[in-house]
Amino acid sequence: MSLLAKIAEIENEMARTQKNKATAHHLGLLKARLAKLRRELITPKGGGGGGTGEGFDVAKTGDARVGFVGFPSVGKSTLLSNLAGVYSEVAAYEFTTLTTVPGVIRYKGAKIQLLDLPGIIEGAKDGKGRGRQVIAVARTCNLILIVLDVLKPLGHKKLIEHELEGFGIRLNKQPPNIGFKKKDKGGINFTATCAQSELDGDTVKSILAEYKIHNADVTLRSDCTADDLIDVVEGNRVYIPCIYVLNKIDQISIEELDIIYKVPHCVPISAHHRWNFDDLLEKIWDYLHLVRIYTKPKGQLPDYTAPVVLPDGWTSVEDFCLKIHKNLIKEFKYALVWGSSVKHNPQKVGKDHVLEDEDVIQLVKK
Fold it and tell me: Which of 26, 75, 161, 177 has its CA 20 to 30 A from that of 83?
């Protein structure tokens, strides 16, 4: 029996099963089995494995990476061509783009790499079309733009989300607040710090037994679902922010546009007429959470043209030094910082000081 047949069988059984307290245990087991089969489908067992397909793995350049995901012919290539000035082949038939086309834009001093990925078709997570490679590249992005046709958006949105979820990409979500630690002995130690609506000790044990884990500490710090627990046990999930780009707004009325503007994480644009690009770029910048740090050589004015761009969460002075050169931290004595992260301007700080956006820094070496 092939993997796809097994997956289909489990999905059918889950669809047949009623959801209530009595069946929660059974559904949890089925979800765990499904997750395991999905993982085997993405990374087949056995030797070297086939090639990844030509032209897919693009070298990471710039400070952040943004991928365009969408069905064929929703205007991904037009959007890339008009944003980045890169020529990605555009035509009025489906599947024009066959490999990844990279482009780079400069925005607020940061270099942002844009990837035009080939169109996704239904069943991509099961290896149909070029889907597996497309989604593998999407996993490495800092932000995903799901490009939708405004005339048929919601069906497509659900399908694409479903394909990406099947590959372990979680959109606009935070990692579940679950502590999970494997042990050598001592059985399964289950604690919940708040009331659980779905999981209990037995369900947790049976899900872990499906993964052949019989000794572990599990701490649930929020009201979690079986899916959250499976995500933590699998450990290969990536949490990526996502913006829905509704293209082709030149074909709808103003009233419809007002409704679209109320949808969260959504930006309506027209790639062909270049409408509303500034709004899109601003939203991309917000979702990337990049921090710009300006450098100041001793006795000179700060250089505001070329900031050093750091990702959110890696913004200490030490990270700043490593971004420039890894030997810089060995010679580091202290730094002078001007900006919103310090009380006095300038303030003398050590390597653990956390910088904020648009701070100015001067390094003093030993």
Answer: 161
